[in-house]
Here is the input.
Amino acid sequence: MFVKHLVSNFVPSMKLSSLSTPNGLQIGDILKQARIFSSPDVLEYSKLTNDSNPLHFDSECARNAGFEDRLVPGMLVASLFPRIIASHFPGAVYVSQSLQFKLPVYIGEEIIGEVQAINIREIKKKHIVKFSTKCFKYGNQLVLDGEAMAILPSLAVEQEQSMG
Here is the structure.
């Protein structure tokens, strides 16, 4: 089993580990990426999605709703999963994603996104992979849990591709 860390521009302290499995992705393999979501990230997400929920922009509103401060939109946090998969498997087609939001994510918190291969099937020279998808804060606090399916053109794990 290998664990690969994808490093976001926002968390330069994490290191990229080397691939230890020459045969490509196998059941149990884990790919991770760390990310800190900023106020500008939330603003850009809002512009793209027209999500103007005041919980993301107004600290007082968020506190009145029972939160410590402004929240990062859950779908923005979940965007770590397709990024992790696509950066290692260019040409991957994301088929489905289930999500369960467990804890709030606040602007400025380091979030670790993790995908783990839990099932791999080959059909017509393509690979259908089921991934367990999780996000953590403070190392072990589960904030987001789910599963994803993706069609991969190959099981060969590539180095992180620039995602712009």
